[in-house]
Structures are given as structure tokens and as C-alpha cells.
User: Which sequence fits this backbone?
């Protein structure tokens, strides 16, 4: 009897099945740091950002939208107290927008259209509460662009950062 090898399959002798083949590559060897093995986790929370093993951002965005929606409740309460629109916009910018844009430069490029739509729903809800329509950000994309430009500008303004010649190359 001749056995044919399948791509990505390995011979697995301990298995009770008849094929003797196991799909997929073998797990990588454990990483050792300071004579201690490093364990692998599915989800990691770092400085308020949720990072998954697959480097997908759905959980992080779900967490951000949940936090922002909770803050919209307070925005509604402030509206009930008849605060001026300018103060409501300030609350939105300081509390809600800061949540939505936290670490946006890290995850935005990899966010799916569906995730971006969820974030947009939060922005739209805040706009409806405030009653200012299009005077706030049209979408999450301009917020990302603004934050990305700020990051680059700040890094080049830092005297301990890259030299001016490097800045001219990046800004072109």
C-alpha cells in the first residue's frame, strides 16, 4: 500500500485514526526568555488596547464603541440640563472622541469596513444628541488623518527625534 503525502500534512503516529496524517504545521517551539518559557495567549490587553493573536482589531473596536456609547448617556444627560451646544461639543471632543481615537494610528489601517461603520454609528449618535449635524467629524477617517498628521508633526518637532533631512523625505 502506497501512502501519498498531502501538502501541509505531517505523519502523526500517536493518533488512533487510520489515515496517519495530521493537517497543518506543527506548533512552533516555545520561546524562552531568562530560562523561563513564554506562554502564548489568544487576547492581550495593553494600555487599554485589545490585541488578539491573529492581530485582528474587532475586539478592540467593540470595546471602544462600548465605552463611547456609555459616555453618550452622559452627553444626553448634559443635553437635558440645557447646556449650550458649544459645551456639548467640548464634552464630545474630550470624552467620546478621545475614546474613539485612542491608539487609532495602530489599528485603523487594519480595521474592516464593518468596524469603521460601528465607529461611525457612535459619531452619528453623538451628532444627533448634540443636534449639530455635520459640524462634527463626517466620519472616522478624518479623525484618523488628523491624529496621524499630529503624530508625525509631533515626532518631527521633538528635538531628540529624527533629523530635519529625514522629515523632508517623509513629508514629500
Assistant:
Amino acid at each position: 500500500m502506497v501512502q501519498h503525502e498531502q501538502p501541509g500534512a505531517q505523519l502523526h503516529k500517536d493518533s488512533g485514526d487510520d489515515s496517519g496524517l495530521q493537517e497543518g504545521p506543527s506548533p512552533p517551539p516555545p520561546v524562552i526568555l531568562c530560562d523561563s518559557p513564554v506562554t502564548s495567549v489568544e487576547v492581550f490587553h495593553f494600555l487599554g488596547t485589545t490585541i488578539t493573536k491573529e492581530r485582528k482589531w474587532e475586539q478592540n473596536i467593540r470595546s471602544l464603541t462600548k465605552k463611547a456609547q456609555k459616555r453618550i448617556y452622559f452627553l444626553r444627560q448634559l443635553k437635558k440640563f440645557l447646556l449650550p451646544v458649544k459645551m456639548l461639543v467640548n464634552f464630545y471632543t474630550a470624552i467620546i472622541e478621545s475614546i474613539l481615537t485612542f491608539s487609532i494610528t495602530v489599528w485603523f489601517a487594519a480595521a474592516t469596513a464593518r468596524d469603521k461603520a460601528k465607529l461611525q454609528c457612535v459619531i452619528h449618535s453623538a451628532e444627533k444628541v448634540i443636534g449639530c449635524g455635520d459640524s462634527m467629524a463626517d466620519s472616522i477617517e478624518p479623525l484618523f488623518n488628523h491624529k496621524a498628521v499630529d503624530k508625525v508633526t509631533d515626532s518631527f518637532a521633538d528635538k531628540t527625534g529624527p533629523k530635519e533631512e529625514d522629515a523632508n523625505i517623509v513629508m514629500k
The longest helix spans residues 58-80.
